[in-house]
Amino acid sequence: MGEIFGVLAAVLSSALGGTSIGATRYLVASIDPLAIGSFRFGIGFLLLLPLTLLRGDRWPGRGDWAAAIGLGVLFFALFPILFNASLIFTTAARGALALSTLPLLSLVIGAALGAEALTWRKSIGVVIATSGVAVALLSDLAAAPSGAWRGDLLMMAAALCMALYGIWSKALIRRSSPIAFTTMSMVAGALCLIMLSSVRGSFGPVANFGAPQWLAALYLGAFGAALTFYLWAFALERTTPTRVAISVTVNPITASLVGAWLLNEPLRWNLAAGIVAVFAGIWLATTTGRGAQVANAPASGQA
User: Which helix (H) or strand (E) segment is 81 a member of?
Assistant: First the structure.
């Protein structure tokens, strides 16, 4: 049951990440991506910190501080910088497909480092879910600017950051707690983004913010950072990095549905087909085959 809750938490985390794309697309017209990241993770930290203190959760031990801070810079600073930079060169659809290489990277790196076993069931599930993203974005993948490959590579580098965070943070999360570890990691990344934003003068346009911009920033902080990444850490504590990572294929699906609802973007047949493939792939990669269940079951009459 713990692993099932972990997978469900990862899917919900990725779904919330998809809805955050709408808020980001709205804010990007007012402030630059560095400032958006500063607001998102700065507000997220301010919300998680009192919750962690009130719950009395166990913080990472002193011996884990360097690793927690380093992983925070990797995931909450370098990842959003690479993610936003990639979209300068490529389209959102191609970027979403490149990011969907995350479960494949997690599977291969995790197996190479001995973090989890490489199985045919997980491998096939990852391929099916990633193919589902490609089908869902089929109508948008053809249009690409010159040099889009640069953005695709940057997005794959962002996915690599996310994969390494998922693999390396699992043991640290188990030694502390999901909320406390996420809080410490998030503040490390947020401080990096705030310093970079201050040097670049990225906060200047904030003086002209109205209620809609502040609401979008608060949504990103509360749901796009605090809740999303708490759920991600909760999932990593309970299941394997690949089973968590495969949920990222839900992200572009959710973003497309939100775009259809809020921005009147068209819904096409390929989105429905992609949704079916994504969830079929997630089911295949996160469940155990009947043969394995029989092999793992206790013998008849065994105590």
Answer: helix 79-89
